[in-house]
Amino acid sequence: MHYRLILSDIDGTLLNSKHELTVGVKQAIQHYVAAGGTFVLASARPPLAMTALAQQMGLAVPLVSLNGAVIAQPTDDKKLKVLATTPWPTGIAAKVYTALSSLTLSLNVFSDTHWYVADTSQWTRQEAAITGFAPETVPIETGLANGLPVHKLLCMGEPDVIDRAEQIVLAHPEWQLVASRSKATYLEIVRQGVSKEAALKTLSHLFDIPMTATMALGDGENDLPMLQAAGLGVTLTNALPQVLDVIKTVVPDNDHDGAAVAIKQYAMGEG
């Protein structure tokens, strides 16, 4: 075994374009774990939208959720024990929400294990269908004004509007936030210092596995830091162009079991 710890994105990486886990990918993961490897899911999804998939794969390790803002451990009673969280700086959430509300976007607030929206839309319905986890409709602005902790803000909209939202965040370094795309129509906003890369380093320490013995799989801009930090970063041919420009170890796309190829060929060294 060449790499003892794999941190992998879910959507666009492990799952195909129909958001399904194929038999080939599932078997590759289970073969890797049976051989002694540690396989951890890392996603922009909230933790409760990851548990069913982890159970389907037979994984009993921590889940890296919300791009690393919340790390949680599934428990025997099918609940979650939050191990670490990194919320936004105090007092800025309302400002950010107000600034972005002027754009035609679906704004989604993630707080610990909760997903909050002010109202539902085609975007939220689409995301709920993908993840199998529905948002709670609440008066967001009131909650933020009253100190609701925010771990991630997800903006969903057309690519040109996402560009404008990203520029707004970039124009306010005092917010201490970082914005990155998980896909062309999704902008993920978390606190500076929160990333899948930081989560990978935490897991490397937790499992006493050197970074040189880690591998990362991903396709989105938000995956780039962990892909670059791992002993080996592997992407798929369906990855965003800005990922393919940087990561040169590339496997077939997510509709052709690219993740399984990566696990077998690079992590297991099976040719």
UniProtKB/TrEMBL annotation:
GO CC annotation terms, alphabetical: cytosol
Pfam families: Hydrolase_3
Gene Ontology MF annotations: magnesium ion binding; phosphatase activity
Domain of life where this protein originates: Bacteria
Keywords: Hydrolase
SUPFAM superfamilies given in the database record: HAD-like
Name of the molecule in the record: Cof-type HAD-IIB family hydrolase
Organism: Lacticaseibacillus rhamnosus
